[in-house]
Amino acid sequence: MKNWILGLCMTLLSFQLLAFPLEIENKFGVTKLSKQPVRIVSVGVSDQDDLLALGIKPLATREWYGNQPYAVWPWAQDELGDAKPVVLKGTSYDYEQIASLKPDLIVGVSSGMTLREYEQLSTIAPTLAQSSEYPDWMMPWNEKHRMIGQAVGLEAQAEQNVQNIVERLNDVKAAHPEFKGKTAVVAFYYNKQPGAYASKDLRSKFLTELGFVIPEQFDQLAGSAFYASFSEERLNLLETDVLIWLGEEKDIDSASTSAFRKRMPFHREGREYFTGNIVGGAFSFYSPLSINYLIDEMVPEIAKIIGNN
């Protein structure tokens, strides 16, 4: 038995090594890797989740928001373990800091980096930007995970991770046929304006994968963007079977929109769900690790709303 396991491990290792050298096309060019990378820096705002889901602990992570330890949220902390990556802060890159880590791969699929930033990072190490097939921030989670998995030589594991999540989403959908065809939208309140996400946004994709429908009006309002803002007087646009607010109810109540919201049927009939900070973070990350967290935390609450109306 031991010899069989050893042989299997050697076969898998050989398969991974045969994947290199490799080239991966990205929106700015081609990421060329001569060997399997070991020293990996994550400059994407959520790419640390993909790496951790593959068993890789990056040398550095990038702070997005939330002030979480090492920029790693609760759903990924077990995978981080006792590792203590450097946290890259700010909206611009500290190239000297990144170079000092001596990476052999820089992962920035969820970074929204510019061509100039890509070229500068590429002088430090091979840099993985997102695919050219999608606007910034809109690369589907499964394709993003496969791309990162390929770059680090763990393509088969990435595919298995994707299939595990797809199966779980399908199981949830089958267990909740009442979701099918119901309307839903993810809303927010920012800069003194309410707004909602279009169907192309990753948060909306989660709802549609469960059977919900995002009303077309949000796509029309958003145009080429992935979200749309509007005035408080138009809160009736959010009249759906389930209204999901990013954040805490107290944050919405303290906003000037509160008086308008309390007159809306979705409020009076209890069709609102407030994500809070952690579930809201999982929604925004929408990664292989955070999707499982979303299923555990959000789906039961959505089911209650549908069941009560």
TrEMBL record:
GO terms for biological process: iron coordination entity transport. This is ABC transporter substrate-binding protein. Keywords: Ion transport, Iron, Iron transport, Signal, Transport. InterPro entries: ABC_transptr_periplasmic_BD, Bact_iron-sidero_bind. PANTHER family: FERRIC ENTEROBACTIN-BINDING PERIPLASMIC PROTEIN FEPB, IRON III DICITRATE-BINDING PERIPLASMIC PROTEIN. Belongs to the bacterial solute-binding protein 8 family. It comes from Vibrio comitans NBRC 102076. One of its GO terms (cellular component) is outer membrane-bounded periplasmic space. PROSITE patterns: FE_B12_PBP.
